[in-house]
Amino acid sequence: MTAQLNEALLRGLTPGVLGILVRRGADFATAEDAVQEALIEALRVWPEDQPHDPKGWLVTVAWRKFLDATRAETARRRREDLLEEEPAPGPAAATDDTLQLYFLCAHPSLTPSSAVALTLRAVGGLTTRQIAQAYLVPEATMAQRISRAKRTVGEVRFDQPGDVATVLRVLYLVFNEGYSGDLDLAAEAIRLTRQLAAAIDHPEAAGLLALMLLHHARRAARTTPEGELVPLAEQDRSRWDTALIAEGVHILQAALARDRLGEFQAQAAIAALHADAPAAAETDWVQIVEWYDELAGLTGNPVVRLNRAVAVGEADGPRAGLAALAKLDSSLPRYTAVAAYLHERDGDLATAARLYAEAAQQASNLAEVAHLTRQAARLNASR
Amino acid sequence: MAKYLLLKHYRGAPAAVNNVPMAEWTPEEISAHVQYMQDFADRLKQTGEYVDGQALAPEGLWVQYNGEGRPPATDGPFAETKDLIAGWMVIDVDSQDRAIELAGELSAAPGAGGKPIHEWLELRPFYGVAPTVTE
């Protein structure tokens, strides 16, 4: 078995192993350290001697590491209690333990960045170094963030039902971070969401998975090799991953059929309508506006209304889009960029050029700044 | 999950409230000031919000390309009026509110008389990576 295969297998097994240790009564921080040590041991031993039951092997080794650590900390009484409580070895149902781990790592007592870091480490089985590289912070900074997060959730009782919405939000944050270094956070978020959606019967977990797959399917077409943004309408649709789109649509349809609509399903429905159009001009904007209305009703999020104004502009013409826009707060992120686009569609190129330049000043990432500046320059050059 | 640059200026920022030149402080006041900044950085390391920080010498130069085959020009017309950066710290925090709170804390470093200097700090957000979902 190759090292890569081992690593993928280990990362898949990590949350279940950690969950079993915690359920046996191990405190979260020590258990997490013990599992990491067991993973290192596995990477060393398995290439020579692959166990028949990798998960059972990991549980045994991690539990031994945990006991060693506990022993070293003079908590003798506690260790003896734990030994007495240790259940007989044997295959255990994986899903409940893994699920609880998701809930713990996304606990509401954590800040979003701590929840993200802890989820990637404990549920994702990533190393602190990998996570630090992905978020472009020093390893020591990420190590502190993770150990503080572990201390924060150390006191959390593990028998309370978790909050699915919080878990989904954390996974969505990971997905939106994109990728840098050698770790693709979008792919990692998809892997974890897949695992979660398989473990719980929840239409929004399915909705989030569908949304991620549908967005991910378009990733290759979203930027040029030089990193420039390509707007949806100009993307080379032959570069969209049709297998991922088909899978996303399939998952979404099953979720929608259950008639418990949530915001991720609604967003996925919009993404599916975009993915479904053979050409930008054939996009079903009328239906997209209807989904934005559903979404606005579910979330009340002003950014949703901003996106809706774009869709209205396509469905009913730029004047209608501008009228929808006029009802919104002009300090919303990307408000000016949307206004610029709608004015250009309406033929007012001078206003559009001025607004594109203004929007570039307000953009929060470099690719967007460059894109909006080019839009302004293009219109200025054409006049 | 947003990075900010905190900039301290030798010159170019509005005057601090407690604006006594450091050379006129007592040695203990200088030590207290330096200790405050060190404690501030250490605390951010503990919270997992510290990325990097350095102090800069005051002798910075403006440099400009000066044409083919000629040495770069330095300091041009700016020598007396230019802004000078004294040091910087990069933090990685959950929100702009948190970044402002921390900058306010750093600006409260003690100066002459042990009172906060109320110096102005520049707070600049980093450009982030491109978000995936914008369509």
UniProtKB/TrEMBL annotation, chain A:
Which residues does the UniProt record annotate as the domain DUF6596? 165-255
Q: Does the keyword Magnesium apply?
A: no
Extract the Pfam families matched here.
DUF6596, Sigma70_r2, Sigma70_r4_2
Residue ranges occupied by any RNA polymerase sigma-70 region domain in the UniProt entry:
14-74
InterPro entries from the entry? DUF6596, RNA_pol_sigma70_r2, RNA_pol_sigma70_r4_t2, RNA_pol_sigma_r2, RNA_pol_sigma_r3/r4-like, WH-like_DNA-bd_sf
User: A GO molecular-function term, please?
Assistant: sigma factor activity
Q: Which domain of life is it from?
A: Bacteria
What GO terms in the biological process aspect are recorded for it? DNA-templated transcription initiation
Keyword Transcription assigned: yes
Q: Where is the RNA polymerase sigma factor 70 region 4 type domain?
A: 102-152
Q: Provide this UniProt record's keywords sorted from A to Z.
A: Sigma factor, Transcription, Transcription regulation
Similarity annotation? Belongs to the sigma-70 factor family. ECF subfamily.
Report what the protein is called. Answer: RNA polymerase sigma factor (Sigma-70 family)
Species in which this protein is naturally found: Crossiella cryophila
UniProtKB/TrEMBL annotation, chain B:
YCII-related domain residues: 17-107
What InterPro entries does this protein map onto? Dimeric_a/b-barrel (IPR011008), YCII (IPR005545)
Gene3D superfamilies assigned to the protein according to its UniProt record, in alphabetical order: Dimeric alpha+beta barrel (3.30.70.1060)
- On the tree of life, the source organism's domain of life is Bacteria
Q: Which family does it belong to?
A: Belongs to the YciI family.
Q: What is this protein called?
A: YCII-related domain-containing protein
